Every structure is written in structure tokens, then in C-alpha cells.
Amino acid sequence: MRLFIETIGFGIFSGSLISLGAVGFTVQFAISNVLNVAYGAFITLGAYFGYWLVNDAHLNFWLTVPIVAIAIGALSVAFNRLLPRPLLRRGASFVAILIGTVWAGITLQYTIVSIVGPSTFTYALGNGKTIDLWDFVLTNTQLIIIGGTALLMLGYHGLLTRTQLGQAMRATSVNPVVARSCGIRIDRITDVAWLISGMLCGATGVVLAGTVSTFDSTLGTTFLVYMIAAAVLGGIGQPYGAMIGGLVVGLTTQLTAAYLSPAYEDVAAFVILVVMLLAWPRGLFGSAAAAGRRLVG
Amino acid sequence: MVYIGTDLIAAWGLNLEFGVTGIPNLAFIVFVACGAYTYAVLTVGPAAQFGGAETYIIGGHVPAFFAIVIAVIVSGLLGVLIGLTGLRRLRLDYQALTLLIISFVASGIVGADSNIFNGLDGMSLIPDPLQFVSSQSGRAWLYVGVVAAMCVFSVLLVRRFTGGPMGRALRAVRDDEEAAIAIGKSILGLRLLVQGIGAALAGLSGVLLVGFIGGWSPSAWQYVETLALLTALIVGGRGSNLGALIGTVLLLGAFLQGVQYLPTIGRPDLIFDLGWVVVGGLTIAFLFLRPQGILPERRPRYASGPQLDEPAAATTEPAAGSAGDDDRRARRQAALSAVVAAEARRDPAESYEDVLVVEGIARSFGGVHAVADATFTVPRGAIVGLIGPNGAGKSTALGIISGFITPESGRVTFAGRDVTGVPANRRARQGLVRTFQLTHEFSRLTLLENLLVAARRHRGETVLGALAGRRYWHAEERVNLERAHQLLELFSVSHQANKLAGTLSGGQKRMLELMRALMLDPKLLLLDEPMAGLSHAVSELVEQACLSLRDAGVAVLLVEHELAAVERLCSNVVVMAQGTVLIEGEMAALRRSKEVQEAYFVG
To answer: N or C: which end of chain A has fewer CB within 10 A?
Structure first.
């Protein structure tokens, strides 16, 4: 029982990190209909930037999180203006834009490697005191991260449901053409969406790098798999789906690691995912839009 | 050389799937891997051979030739299987994402399995299929020869499907699914066919690769490989086989392999890393500067068709009133009905009286009854109007009749047969043809091709027909071509025949919609507001077409808001309001009906 609860605790922790990234990823898809594979490279960038701030500029770890988030958020907006948006304007297809982001990601990743070199890095981040709540054994850091994620998610929920901006975002995600003709400034909405997703991306990058033992330039692209899995599992484009999907992916990976074998950590979760995707491809929160006939060509 | 060859085979396979048919198969590399693993598992010996260091459950020791054949077949079947899953109900961009995940996950799953595929370490000592050649260099050269031969074979095979009527049908599916269904194409069938062939080619590529390297592991088939192939297609020009060749050789051959031969600067690998940066930058620049690729897809141009007696009649606008004009109009109408009637007249008299019987159909969307218990009939060879205020359920009724919308209850009988459960594409092939209110054209086919692709039961659109090649379907193609040219002439758009449909004007697209429907030899044509937004001259063409159809014995169900036109054309008019049939009768009588006036102005 103790093992089970411990595992659940750790699963929630890793799940909340995945959720954080997955929501950012899914926002871009929902608002811009862009599958941004460069997202992984931006996570890596956030991780290295955070590393630099902590180790060379000697900032407090928790202070670096918002700094990196804002920096990556700004970069994300710039990136959207430089690549996906102009390509969309030229009538590029979904897959062409995907390919564009793939190469942007590769370019960014290898630029990072060229600068920092191929070796692995470690954050000097202490775990703090361990807290033992019933059988939930979690470190301070982990608790802060879980709590922070929950707050961010709540905030995002509030933004979507309580504000005019959130309403405009939802409208744009459902039908950008109609939204535009209702007087919504699509360009500004996409900027906001990419800012939010970039900030989530940066935060994920710093926190991820701070909690794994070592990392290198493949950090983000490896983690991208989990985030996309979570986003798809929850129903791509659905922010709440991505939150739940992240928790599901986190929990299943940790549970299989604990009960089957660490070697199967990803496999069991992935098998469930594949079976689910093939049988029920719209995902948990999948919208009717997913089944429509919007063309990709 | 072997690498480029195997990449080429895969690229052609993917081009058939993505470039031509529009299936965004981001899991393509999985099928390459499937071929490679199947071959490896079948050919390596039992575990003992390796001193127990590696464990394989299956030590097939199957002769290489059979292993190759089985591997290719297994990959092809896997392709068809994936195509059959719930994925096919997803929007294509969602499909792309899901397939990407499957690609991630597949290598993870295989990597964790140590019994059959030896996990992340992968399989090694996989026998070379050319073992019987003793000299090492001789074997290498022979291998290059074999791969080259397979390349030639693959491209010849792929061309049979990307060219001719089959390629046209596949591109139609790519450009507009709904319209493809409306002209009777089986989307699922064509997609599965393409996925099967594409995956089989991927399998072949995998077998050849693994036979050459002698080892295979999950790191060799990451999702990035699919993306690299896709990049090659986009750079080369998707949809074009030659473009795929150029893209593959340029990108995968020259760039990625070439980087290895550069001198080292700084730390080892730095030049390699910088190489990726450069390739990435170049590819992105390419997407901006030449998005259509180096060698974009080219559509065949046809010489102009046979001239009719009086081409001037088709190109000049009829000035109302003059006697010569009426004469010209009548002649054109006769010519049109002759073209249309080619098939209809051959139809022996069947026992039904009404070509369409609609009984009590109903359908609601989210609690709103769009159509509730509507019943009406369309007699053979009559033009029946379907009118009613906006939201009366006319378009939904049309959707139910044509099979695009499933009714909750009720029955649709077409030409004496109950077609309620028959899929839309089969109804179209039986002669129950619809047009769309918002035009649906195959934008990357030419206007002429848009017509040709609609021809029914083309011999070249079957698997065997496509394989048999041009000689098999050439004669039929010529007949269709002539007919298409006649239609273009009669609708005065001959001069646009070789223009891509996506570049036509709104009015021309409407004409295309109508002409394409006529190519299907309909028994009943469902026209959804064919005159909306058309100029007077062009709507008159549409009216003439309706009359020609009637003369040729083809029935028309006309949904239209232009009541004057409805009055001129229709013998009988059905008025719908709030999902039900309000009243039926002649237009002149209906105009006086109080109910109708109320429905229009109040309801």
C-alpha cells in the first residue's frame, strides 16, 4: 500500500509537469492549427537559460521560473510571427508548416548543441525537506511544483471562462474565419496564445531541468513525446483534456515502472495509448470538430 | 548508394500516400521498420547461434527470398490494418498527430521487448540475402544492382497508380473528400489501397536496408526519419515522382550524407551539428521561397476538343428577344440533351413510376428537428422544385436523399430500390447524383480533369486496371474525353479546360459542379441552389441544362430561391417549412396559397 501511494504521489508530480507542457502545446494547435514540433526545442532552450541564470548569474531557482517563462513566451510569439503565421498566409498546408517547425526545432536544438557542447548538465537544486503526508512522500520542491501547476491551470481556466479574451480565444479556436468577421482580432489572439504557450513551455523547461538528475540538448524533444501523448489522449486542442491527459500519462508510467518493471515504464502507458487512439481516436475530451472533414492536403 | 536507393523506394511510397492521396502518414517509418524486423526475425538463426548472448524466440532461418516476400506482405497488411482503425473517422490533421504518436510509441514498445526484437540493442547478424556470392566486393556491387533494379520496379509500379485515371481519382480524394464521395468514389477503398501499397513499398525499403546493414534497432527508425522523407517530398515537389527523386537525392543523399565528409573544426561533431543547423535553415528558406517544391506536380494538358456546329453560340451572350437567338438556344438545348442522354436513353424502361420516393424522413441536430417526417416523390423525367424559407430543412432533405446525412427514420426509394442504407458514393454510381450549395471542386486538378474523374466505372480506376496500364483503359478514356469536351463547349468554358479548378471564378466553379454531375449519367440530379449568385446569362445556361435533362429523361430535384426560375422550370413544386412538407402543387397555384405566403413571410 505504501508503495502504491508513493507511486501515485510521484505520478501526480510527473503528470503535473506533463500537463503543464501539454496545455501549452495544445493551445498552439487549438488557436493556430499548427502542430509545433519545435516546442520541444523551446523547452530545451528554457532549460539551458534557466541553468545559466541559476549557475552563472546566481539567481534563486524559483525566481528564474517566471524570468525564463517570459523570455520563452516572447520568443514563442516571435517564432510564430516568423514562421507559422507567414507560412499560413501563403497558404502552406498543415504538413508543410509541420515540416517547417520540425526543421526550426532541429536548427534550434543543434544551435544549442553547437554552443554548449554535447555534455550533460546538472542543476544545483536541492530537494529541500521531505514531507510525509500520510504515505505521500514528496519533497518540498515537488509539492511546490504540483501546487504551482494546479494554480496555473486554474488561472488558465479562469482566463478562458471568465474573461473576454478567453471567450475570444475559444471562439477563434472553434472557427477563426467567423471569429474574424465578428470583429475579433485574430492576430492579437494568436499572439496571446503563443505567448501563453511559450510561457508554459519555458516554465516546464526550467522545472523539468531542475528536477531530472541530468539533462542535455535532447531534453525537450524527449519530453515532447509525453506531452503530445497527453494532449492527444485528452483530445487534441482541448486544454482540460491536456491537463487530465498529462496526469493519466504520468500516473500510468509511474505505476508500470513500480509494479511491472522500470524497463516497461513507457511501454505499458504507450500500449494503452495506442489501443485507445485506434479504438477511440477523438480522445477523452475530443470534440466533434475532430471528426469533421477539414482538409490537410 | 544502397541508402539512397532504399530511401528512394520509401519516398515514392510516401509520395503515393501523402503527395498524391493526401494521407498525412507521419508513422511511415514504422512500416519500413516492420519490413526490416519481419525479415530479420524470419532469417536469423535460433538463439544458440549467438552463444546465448542474445535471445530471440523465433529463429526462423527462413530462406531470404521468402522472408523478403513475407516481409513486404506483412508491411502492406499492417498499412491496411492501421487504415481500418478508428483513425479513418478523424480529421486529417488529427490523424497526422495520432500517427506521429504511434510512431513515437512503436519504437518505445519494440525497444522494451527483448524476446523477439532484442529491445533497444536491436538485432544483429541478420543474413545478407546475397550470401551465396562469395566475394565481398562482388556482393556489394550486386547489392547495389539489386537495389537499383528494385528502385526501377518501384517507380514503375507507383507510376501506374499516380498517373492515369487512378492517379486522378486519388488526387480527387486528396483535394475534396465530400465531392469525391459525391461522384461515387469509395474514399475508404482508395485510401486503404494506397496505404497498403505505400506500406508494402516501405517494407521493401526496410528489407533491403536491413539486409545490407545486417543490423536493426529502434534508434534506426525514429519518427524523425518520416519527417526527413516528408521534407524530401516537399522540397522536391509533392505529388511528383520525379520531384520525390530529386528531393531525396538532394536532401537525404547530398546534405545528410555529405556532411560526414567535411573536415573537422573545433571539437569533434561540431561540424556535424552545424550541418544540421544549415540544413534546417535551408529547408525553412525553401518553404518560403518555393513552397511548391523544385519540380511541382504537373497536370496533363489536353488538346482542345471537337468543335461543335456553332461555337459562337456558346461563347457569346444571348441577347434576349431576337429570333435567331431563340433558335440558337433551342439548338444548344438539343445538343446538351443529346450529350446527357447518351446513357439515359440506353436505359431500358424499368418498372418504377417515380424515380424518387421519400417517405417520412426525419433528422434532428442537437434537439432541433431539421427535417421531421417529410414525404414527397419525384416522377421520372420531371423537374420538381423544392422551395421553402431558410431553415426549412431543404438542404438536410437533400443530404438524406443523397446519402450524406443518415436519417433517424424514414425511407428513401430510388429507381424502385430502397437505398436508405446505401452509402452516398454507391448512390452516386447508381445515378442519384447531387451538387453542392457551396461549390466543391478538386482544386489541383484541371477543369477538364474534374469532369473526367467523375466518369462512372472507369476501367482504369480498378487496381487491376491501373496495373494493366494505359493500353487497357485508353479507349474508354478517349470516349470520356470527348464527352467532357462537348460539355465544356456547351457551357462555354472550353478555353478554361486546362486551368486548375482552384483558379476558376465562382460562376465557373458552379458550372463545373453541374458538368461534373452530368458526367455521371444521372437518373436523378439533385441541384442545391445552382443559380445562387450567378449572372443572368449563366443562370440561363443552368436553366437550359435542366430542360435538356428533362428532354433526355433525367429527373431533377431543384432546390432554389429564385422562384421565377422555379416557376419556369418545374412541373411540380414541393414547399417545405419547419422540416415538413407544407404543400405541393404547381407554382402558379402555390403563389396564391395563403399557407405558403405565411411560411415565407412569417415562419
So the answer is: N
